[in-house]
Amino acid sequence: MRVELRLAGSNQVLDHLELDDIPQPGRWLELEDRSYLVLQRHHRYQLRAGRYELSAIALQVKPQRRPADARWWNGRWVIGDPSCAFNARTPLLRCAVLPDGPCGRCAHYTPATA
User: Could you state, in order of their start, the residue ranges of all structural domains in the chain?
Assistant: First the structure.
């Protein structure tokens, strides 16, 4: 599938790729020497023979390396310790108390309640 990488915020085209497995928002796309966090996914359709067909996908991305403390949790990426009540449970923000981390030295760790 043809994929356009666009810089989030400016919509500037960064690259055109052919990918078989297109990442969903909230996942990292890692190429040879570059790494991006996928923020949005837009589908581009084209009218062919009276029907619309998916022709390309545009990914709004943010250049970012996957943090060392990122982990797969409940079917998505999170950074930090998701068992803490203050963790944001997203790939964008670690927590409200200590956003820059690391979680291991945070004095405000509180186990999350169900």
Answer: 2-63, 67-108
